[in-house]
Amino acid sequence: MHRPACKISYLAVAASLALWMQAGFAAREEHTFEVSVSIPTLDFYVLPVDPGFLEREQRMNWDLGREFLHPLRASFDVRNASGGIAARLGHEPALSNGRDEIELSVILNNHPLTPINTVIVPESEARNGSRVPLRIEAIKPQDGFKAGEYYGSVQIIFDALAPVR
Questions:
Q1: Residue 24 main-chain phi, psi, to 5 deg
Q2: Could you say which of 43, 110, 134, 137 is the most buried, measured as most Cβ atoms within 10 Å of its Cβ?
């Protein structure tokens, strides 16, 4: 009668080992992330050529030798099937370190932007679409650039203009 008890205990050990091994292979990982898309209408759009341009902080590079901030440059694809395109600043653009400010000049398609609407693409060019340059330049303060970590934002508002009749 020793042998059947031995068989039962070997079977019990083998079964528990099999369950333990199966539990070991049952590990899993789970990830959740956000997905979005913005599909523009073909009638009106203003989109950066580099899709990440608006999603990440843009850094102005400091030229130590010339004590100069290099301008930011980007290109935008624009279109208005029924008229021109105007743009304006949502607020005065500047960089600040909490004490000092550096004003910024925003130039789109060779037109300096202000808080007042400016036609940046005439109807004749906007109808078929075009690629326009954006340049953001630092305006050197009267007393020069001061050391520090500066941050700021630029808000540009685009308007589709009605066709000229």
A1: -65, -30
A2: 134
- Under DSSP, is residue 19 helix (H, G, I), strand (E, B) or coil? helix
Q: Measuring CA to CA, how many Å separate 5 from each of 15, 17, 18?
A: 15, 18, 20
State whether residue 6 is helix, strand or coil.
helix
State the amino acid at position 126 in one-letter form.
A
Contact between residue 80 and residue 127 where contact means Cβ atoms under 8 Å apart: yes
Contacts of 158 (CB under 8 A, 6+ apart): 46, 78, 85, 86, 87
Residue 113: name the closest of 85, 86, 133, 74 by CA. Answer: 86
Measure the N-to-C terminal CA separation of the chain; round to a whole number of Å.
Answer: 108
The upper half-sphere exposure of residue 112, i.e. CA atoms within 13 Å in the direction of its Cβ, equals: 6
pTM (2 decimals)? 0.74
For residue 114, is pLDDT > 70?
Answer: yes
Q: Are 130 and 79 in contact (CB under 8 A)?
A: yes
In this structure, what token pair is assigned to residue 37? 């898309």
Which amino acid belongs to residue 11? L
* Confidence at 24, pLDDT banded by 50, 70, 90: low
